[in-house]
Amino acid sequence: MKKLIEILLDDIYIQSFIIGLILAVFLSKLSRRTKLNEPPLVYYRFPIIGHTWSFLTDCDKLILESREKYGETFSLYVFGQIMTIVGKETTHEVFRKDQDFSFREGFKNQIPTHLIFRHANLDEKHAKIVKEFVAGKLTHIISRIQKNIIKAIDLCIGECVEPKVIHDPRNTLADIIAIPAANIVVGEECYNNEDILETFNNLTSSILKLLRIPPILSFIHPWLHEQFITIPLRFGWNPISKHKKVILNRIKPVVEKRLYDKKRLGDAWVAPLDALQCQLNDPEATPDLDPNNANYDNIADVICRIIFSAMAATSNGASRVLYDLCNGNELTIDDIARMIKLDSFVKESLRLITPIVGLPRKCISKSCYTFANGYQIPSGRIAFINFRDTDNDEELQGQNPTEFRAYRHLERNSPATKLERNFLSFGGGKRACPGRTFAVNQIKIFIHKILLKYDVRTNNEEIEPKRRYFGPFPLPVNVDLVFENRKEIVN
């Protein structure tokens, strides 16, 4: 009996210690707020839980009501940490201040990309490759993109003399987008292999599985959750391992041949136009043009990063544009054929599928950062962009900003690739998405080719005009689509 009492007492002491530790951490967080002129912390009813439940179940209401009551800049307490939400006046201040706000550090809090892409962790080099290839070479590869989109549509949808129902449109569209994307990333020599296309289609979802682990430990301290979800990564497991192996197996013979041909032919050698070649042009990746010394881990990781950055956004964007067209929004076949109004249509679709809040930036100032409005946040605080504050603003968007208006951006002569205060889908500042030109052009060409060839409608199912969300993230639509050959094709 005495031993039993001692064991029970020990358990009580341990439990008391854990509870005390939790309370100490919680109180220390609150005490730290008194040192700076911080944005107002939105009122919450339940200690420790804070705004977590409202953030997950009705984020839209939480953000809109907080904005109305507390102003453009405010803070929430979610999963054990304070996050600051910045609105339309402060958003571009955060975008411009690279020395004070880091997207890379902010994103690491959600997905540990620094451990996933161990050999391609330099954002500058990754962005340079994308910009150099996409911005510099797009005019030369546009015909290849069109050819491969037509090829992909024929392969994945085919002839529809009789109506054909596609029961999983999002997956079909991802298969279509994977073909032209793979062609200009890994090159003509190996893009068409089934395992490569599967990697382009599935790599992003393999990484996003990490988000399924609920950050319960963050209620004690966010550091504990970060350590917990990275344990497998620190011991060798990686969600992209199988995809990286596929890429390495396919590109190695291509790299060997290209380096051999370049060394043998010299200036007479004509370099292929693809992202892989942009890497091979880097002496650090291919010293002395010797394939035995090539940094294959770096090359493969950069390719994986490009896939992760581009594939899901492009296929989801194409999917949403197609559904918006099926939802009865205005766009005639003449508009599509001449590409006059399609760009505005695409931009409006992309504007309305942004998250409620997103694009986390971590404050990396030495002690704190002082906004132009006078509020201060400490170093280490994550600032989230309030997309709602920009997207729902009538002054920035024009009349009825929450409604889909196909020609909203045509009136301003504002293309979908242009970075503006009223359009945040691709971010802003120096860290804006470097691949936005490629993504937008792929979507436009895809929609153009689809609607010149098919009549597309839903399978007697209505698409809800109101977007649905999980937390701040929009849930994708995946209603059955019916494809039928267009009776009159406009050339």
UniProtKB/TrEMBL annotation:
Heme binds at residue 433. PROSITE patterns: CYTOCHROME_P450. InterPro entries: Cyt_P450, Cyt_P450_CS, Cyt_P450_E_grp-IV, Cyt_P450_sf. Keywords: Heme, Iron, Membrane, Metal-binding, Monooxygenase, Oxidoreductase, Transmembrane, Transmembrane helix. Its cofactor is heme. GO terms for molecular function: heme binding; iron ion binding; monooxygenase activity; oxidoreductase activity, acting on paired donors, with incorporation or reduction of molecular oxygen. The chain crosses the membrane at residues 12-30. Belongs to the cytochrome P450 family. This is Cytochrome P450. It comes from Gigaspora rosea.
